[in-house]
Amino acid sequence: MTGQPPYDEDADRVLAGEYALGLLSPEDAALFEARMQRLPHVRALYAAWAEDLARLTDDIPEAAPPAELKPRIDADLFGAAPTPRRPFAGWRGFGWLVGGAVAAALALLLAVNTGLLDPQGGAPEQAAATIAAEDGSLVLLARYDAAAGRLLVERQTGTAPAGRVLELWLIAGDNAPVSLGVLPPEGAAQVPIGADLGAQMPGGLLAVSEEPPGGSPTGAPTGAVLASGVISPV
Predict the structure, then answer these.
(1) What integer pLDDT is reported at residue 28 of this predicted model?
(2) pLDDT digit string, tens, across residues 173-209
(3) Residue 35 sits in which domain range?
């Protein structure tokens, strides 16, 4: 119709963010790429997203990949026997989870820019995570209720190694892991979450390590990290 704009800038901004994060289906991505070819303003929106997202990693220092990563990749590709995962040796051992933290940050940035999360309203009332081992041998579902100040953790599959227990940890940004307690041998657990920790839940990581009975004796994980999951607003 004459006089109406040929595009919806807000909708294109959302699509540009979803495209930059790889959230579009192949069909929708192809359609968006066609729009970028035709419309300069759409290319500009995508360029702005790409620049903003790239800046999120500016302060992350370079780090060598874990020594066990290549054997595990070789095992996936060529059937070579993987090297057993080393026990946890200080909280920096969670470095292999940094990719999940960056993904969570990108998702939260998208939520703020698209209006899904009000930047003036603080943390969302509900957040959730799937805490899973790479091979699916241990899977837990966690749901955070800010109003109730409670984290509900439900075991789906898996158990602790013989003579060990599973301990739940919260890792937020560069902070050291904070223990959320030892999980029961089976069934669900309700973990009280104070306001300080609650503010760190969305975008953080939940991880499970195997520890001696009673939990870590040091206040930091001492056993192998068995599963992890990013906490996302719902």
Answers:
(1) 84
(2) 778 899 999 999 888 999 999 888 888 888 888 999 9
(3) 9-55
43 assigned to some structural domain? yes
Residues 6+ apart with CB under 8 A from 122: 199
Strands 150-157 and 188-192: antiparallel
113: CB partners within 8 A, 6+ apart: 13, 17
Domain-embedded: residue 72:
no
pLDDT at 171 over 60: yes
pLDDT of 159 over the 80 cut: yes
- Which of 29-38, 62-71, 209-218 comes out lowest in average pLDDT? 62-71
- Is residue 141 within 8 Å of residue 128, measured between CB atoms? yes
- Residue 43 amino acid letter: R
Q: 125 and 214 share a domain? A: yes
**Co-location of 128 and 47 in the same domain:** no
DSSP assignment of 180-207: EEEPPSSSEEEEE--HHHHTT-TT-EEE
Domain total in the chain: 2
Asked if residue 232 lies in contact with residue 104, where contact means CB atoms within 8 angstroms, the answer is yes
Of 192, 134, 181, 182, nearest to 160 (Cα)? Answer: 182
Beta bridge partners of residue 60, listed in sequence order? none
Q: Is the same domain home to 118 and 38?
A: no
DSSP string, 123-187: S-SEEEEEEE-TTSSSEEEEEEETTTTEEEEEEEE--PPTT-EEEEEEE-TTSPPEEEEEPPSSS
